[in-house]
Specification:
Layout lengths: L2 E4 L2 E4 L3 E2 L11 H13 L4 E3 L13 H13 L7 E6 L1 E2 L7 E2 L3 H15 L6 E4 L8 H13 L6 E4 L3 H10 L4 E5 L10 H10 L2 E2 L8 H6 L6 H11 L3 H12 L12 H8 L8 H9 L1
Parallel strand pairs: 3-4, 4-5, 5-8, 8-9, 9-10, 10-11
Antiparallel strand pairs: 1-2, 6-7
Amino acid sequence: MQTRTIGTHTVSAIGLGGMPMSIEGRPERSQAIATIHAALDAGVTLFDTADAYHRDADEVGHNESLIAEALRLAGDSAKGVLVATKGGHLRPGDGSWTQNGDPEYIKEACRASARRLGVDAIGLYQFHRPDPKVPFADSVGAIRDLLDDGLIEMAGVSNTDPDQIREANDILDGRLVSVQNQFSPVFRSSQPELELCAELGIAFLPWSPLGGIGRARTGDLGGAGQAFEAVAEAHQVSPYQATLAWELALAPIVIPIPGASRPASIEDSVKAADLTLSANEIARLSAA
């Protein structure tokens, strides 16, 4: 599989998003672990998670613990893996999402994530979502402190706009290595953020790169679907592969992190890293 760069780390061009393995509709633990192991076998070295990836109120960090367990069980196969986690977003347990950007909360959340992952320093820690009740600079300042104190090796932000990306990079003294925003054929409003990351050399990690869990399960790519299906048919691959290959072709800093809850899903997705689309195909999909 081709590789890409996040900060000082070289990772697989396709990562694995862990959320579907821990929220509503999640698989049995054995199947989730098998999915993570299938990703490792396919060459995936980037695993995305968050302390908020859980279903019930009393199981904060469910996905972090799941990934940590699976990587321990994998032994040497997990060497070189980068686990990226996030803090500052919460799920009260009723299916809703809330924010907490308080600097002290973020620092404690990071320490708790490190304990669940079983590491002294988290490879990549990202501020999950800006909190309208807390100045963005204060929240990112906590990430800077974690970086300076060696509790995290690299820092990123998520769900941010171009001005916030520039501000975060300034606060971090040019050490911002990743931006994780929603981006897919049916959600392209993060195109400016993607282009800014390409300009600054910051990794852009599209979450829900296939349009979200519901669309991924049904194959619904909205109004762009016919174009992606036609390109996929021409290459005799799944529309999912065509979608991820298109995203990879947009810029060398793009690293999609499709979610998966069964081995077959991630095994199909990773093949996109070896799918080459023509310039005409890329233009057609971009215009769809």
